[in-house]
């Protein structure tokens, strides 16, 4: 009879002990697995991206048309003309004073005619460093010849010369620029044509079978004209870089 009761008791005790051991080993197994997972998990090293310095040539453009990168001849010429426009060489703040006076009038007119904002720098190149009438007879901020001025609606006769009226002459310049763009389809070529004349530039394009301004062979003045405009843009937008102090009133007029 006693044996009959002992057997179930022994079985129950054995099951109880096994359950206790199993319960004790479970958390140990979980901890071991977690530890193993941590060891096997590799954390990828943080990649530090080093930004390559942007070259000067890559930063330069006219009316969002870039200069040809990798062209050493263009790069040398650009750097030479930029150096010529530094404060050490020009030593004048007249350009910034005129920009502060002219740009608030010129910019909205350019925008109204759909002409890139960079064309305001043509006015500074044309007459920003000088005043009066050129030896050829061009006058005013946009340096119109009398015949061209009349063609685009300006009065030039007797005591009236609207080439000196900034608003009216800017409107005339916009009409002229827009007309040239229809045939040239490049703002850079339009800027060059403003200097040499639309007809003469078209003739050179046909003769050379080349419509990239930077690759064309042009007279010295026209061949350097767009470079001068880009240089003017640089010293207006980054004056401190070229030795100028930036007048506060210019802050609103330099962004496109």
Would you write up a description of this structure?
- Strand 3 (about 155) and strand 4 form a beta hairpin.
- Mean pLDDT is about 80; it is low at about 20-30, about 35-40 and about 250-255.
- The protein is mainly alpha-helical.
- It has eleven helices and four strands, in the order H-H-E-E-H-H-H-H-H-E-E-H-H-H-H.
Secondary-structure element series:
HHEEHHHHHEEHHHH
Based on DSSP secondary structure assignment, what is the total number of beta strands? 4
State the end-to-end distance: 107 Å
Cross-sheet strand order for the largest sheet:
1-2
Integer-rounded radius of gyration = 37 Å
Range of helix content: 55-70%
Question: Multimeric state of these chains?
Answer: single chain
- Which strand-content bin applies to the residues? under 5%
Structural class call reads mainly alpha
| Tally of alpha and pi helices | 11
For the sheet with most strands, the description reads: 2 strands, antiparallel
Pfam families: SLT (PF01464)
Protein name: Lytic transglycosylase domain-containing protein
Organism: Pedobacter fastidiosus
Domain Transglycosylase SLT: 116-215
Give the gist of this structure:
The protein is mainly alpha-helical.
Labels describing this entry:
256 residues; mainly alpha; two-stranded antiparallel ribbon; two-stranded antiparallel sheet; 4 strands; 3% strand; disordered C terminus
């Amino acid at each position: 009879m006693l044996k009959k009761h002992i057997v179930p008791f022994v079985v129950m005790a054995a099951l109880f002990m096994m359950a206790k051991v199993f319960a004790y080993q479970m958390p140990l197994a979980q901890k071991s697995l977690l530890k193993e997972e941590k060891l096997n998990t590799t954390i990828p090293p943080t990649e530090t991206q080093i930004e390559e310095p942007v070259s000067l040539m890559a930063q330069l453009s006219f009316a969002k048309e870039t200069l040809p990168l990798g062209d050493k001849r263009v790069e040398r010429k650009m750097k030479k003309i930029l150096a010529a426009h530094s404060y050490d060489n020009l030593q004048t703040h007249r350009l910034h004073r005129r920009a502060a006076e002219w740009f608030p009038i010129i910019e909205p007119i350019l925008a109204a005619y759909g002409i890139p904002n960079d064309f305001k720098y043509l006015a500074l190149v044309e007459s920003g460093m000088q005043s009066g009438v050129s030896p050829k007879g061009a006058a005013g901020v946009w340096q119109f010849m009398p015949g061209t001025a009349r063609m685009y609606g300006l009065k030039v006769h007797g005591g009236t010369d609207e080439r000196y009226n900034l608003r009216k002459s800017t409107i005339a310049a916009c009409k002229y620029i827009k007309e040239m763009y229809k045939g040239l389809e490049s703002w850079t070529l339009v800027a060059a044509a403003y200097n040499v004349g639309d007809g003469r530039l078209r003739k050179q394009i046909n003769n050379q079978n080349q419509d990239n301004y930077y690759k064309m062979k042009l007279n010295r003045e026209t061949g350097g004209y767009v470079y001068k405009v880009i240089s003017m843009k640089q010293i207006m937008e980054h004056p401190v870089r070229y030795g100028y102090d930036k007048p506060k009133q210019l802050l609103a007029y330099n962004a496109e």
